[in-house]
Amino acid sequence: MVFIALVILWLIIAACIVLLFLRTQKGMRMFRVLWRSNKVRIAVAIPPLCILAIALAFVYQRSGEEAPALETDTLFTDYSRGIIIGMRDQGAITIDTACNLDQAQPELAYMMPALVAVYKDVVKKPTTARLVRLDDTLTLSFDGYKQFRNRTINILKGVKKKLGPRYTMGMQSIGESHQLTITYKGTQWNNEQLCALPAMEASIREKVDPAVLMSLMRHISDFDFNYESANRRRGLLALDSGEGLAQIYLGAKRLRAALDSAQNNEDAIATFYPERDLQGVGVEWRKSPLKSGWVKEVLNDVPYYKANGIK
Asked: Which of 27, 52, 242, 252 could staple 202 via S-S, CB 3.0–4.6 A?
């Protein structure tokens, strides 16, 4: 962009000089004499054509480098499916053959570990819970019991305490199967809410503060997966690699490395400044009002995330 701006500036300056020259009688006579030569016409035409070719090549290169926009719904549906498959692989649940996970609603899938935990707390000898349905409705079946009696009330009470008023739920007993059905009636979660679980998962793995990781995403991209910084880095954390949710895990790993090598938390956070130059920030970020102000904003929002359960 700077190159094109300079070219345009020089063309304007050259055009002004030529126009001023042609306004004189001597300039007009000289122009008429020179313009009769084919060589002069060709020489005059070549520079604009070269500049036009360079500009077109630059625009074409820029358009070719643009990555396709990521579909957020697909990212979180895949992540939700991964949660359920992970629980199955760990033996926490089984998945009914009729259960289709292709439309798994994150607002329900994210709650699965909490639901199974409530069930195991209430029932003394719990069997393995079976997932019957997971799309816009979650149905979890507890099999092998003739009667549930008070356990039904206690499970519903425990689940309601965990999930809050935006979820509606009920339990139905059919023979030895006791099915808990839950629907989500609140507004659809935004990217900030949906990123919280992967951020906590990544933070546990790398032993970093998830509230710091969430605050970094907020002040770098505002949780926009298609964000692009001025230095052409894309994603939630504007890293030079990874896309989608992968940047959360890469960001947690990089935050761990920065904390290990930096003198303090402020220096570690400063390395994530999205508009950083090629030389990096190091300790020089304190001399820049923009960088130091940005670091302060990140740190100021950490208590907010901790107060909202990100810890």
From this structure: 252
